[in-house]
Amino acid sequence: xxxxxxxxxxxxxxxxxxxxxxxxxxxxxxxxxxxxxxxxxxxxxxxxxxxxxxxxxxxxxxxxxxxxxxxxxxxxxxxxxxxxxxxxxxxxxxxxxxxxxxxxxxxxxxxxxxxxxxxxxxxxxxxxxxxxxxxxxxxxxxxxxxxxxxxxxxxxxxxxxxxxxxxxxxxxxxxxxxxxxxxxxxxxxxxxxxxxxxxxxxxxxxxxxxxxxxxxxxxxxxxxxxxxxxxxxxxxxxxxxxxxxxxxxxxxxxxxxxxxxxxxxxxxxxxxxxxxxxxxxxxxxxxxxxxxxxxxxxxxxxxxxxxxxxxxxxxxxxxxxxxxxx
Length: 326
Ligand code: F6P
What we know:
Helix content is 42%, strand content 18%. It is an alpha/beta fold. A seven-stranded mixed sheet has the order 3-2-1-4-5-10-11, with helices on both faces. 6-O-phosphono-beta-D-fructofuranose binds next to loops.
């Protein structure tokens, strides 16, 4: 029998489509196991401010399909300080919270790891970030939806690029990770994909674009992750234009469009699975770990690995994308 009777759940860092589905799964699974569940509003900031709200089955009705997060989110500076974390702990104690479910990315997990070392309270993480850059799971919540949103946007850009014979540099999100860019590039037949994990020199990119021009390709698309080594889409467009002006070139930045919208079916299922197993994992004695799905199986990874080990895009996919783009 677990000693856990009251759980708190919160979302933190950048929001991701599917977070609501995860919150719903956490609340419904906890309720099924006769636990009391509290939502913390605005992540660690709300933990610090004591912003707790009782959640019951009805509170999470009609949210499964909605983007954003009903619990709101924040990037919290005060939680980085020992004093801030102490206040947060006192608030958890005041609400008799026995364990926490943290939904977010690496910043969220780092906070959870530090916190549960300082104070004796179990934490379990659910990877929710469009970036897909968390070790210990094949996919993070929101990634699939963000890629589909980016693909839809690029399809529209392709129409106008084709009409005007233009070269478009389309920037997608991913400060440190190229998963969104790579999958969007493959799915939209981009001439090149520029991601932080691989170094592509400007001259090599131009070579690739010239191949297209030589076979009378009338327009071209380059997908750029915002954290690409040569800079964002605008920087790249400038650098390319200086040496290669065969096409009239334009820049499009998809930005936060990728973070909103209804979660895809994949994300709804993934979020539901992760939320469900996070609660059952806690009741099973799991602590300081993040839930993940690897090869379609549930896996728990210690926070320290989820944070410090790097997940990199599949090399085969990168190679394939380069070959198919020729
Ligand atoms: O981590 C998710 C993410 O969307 C990144 O891809 C992006 O760089 C960042 O968040 C943007 O954060 P903010 O919305 O705080 O500007």
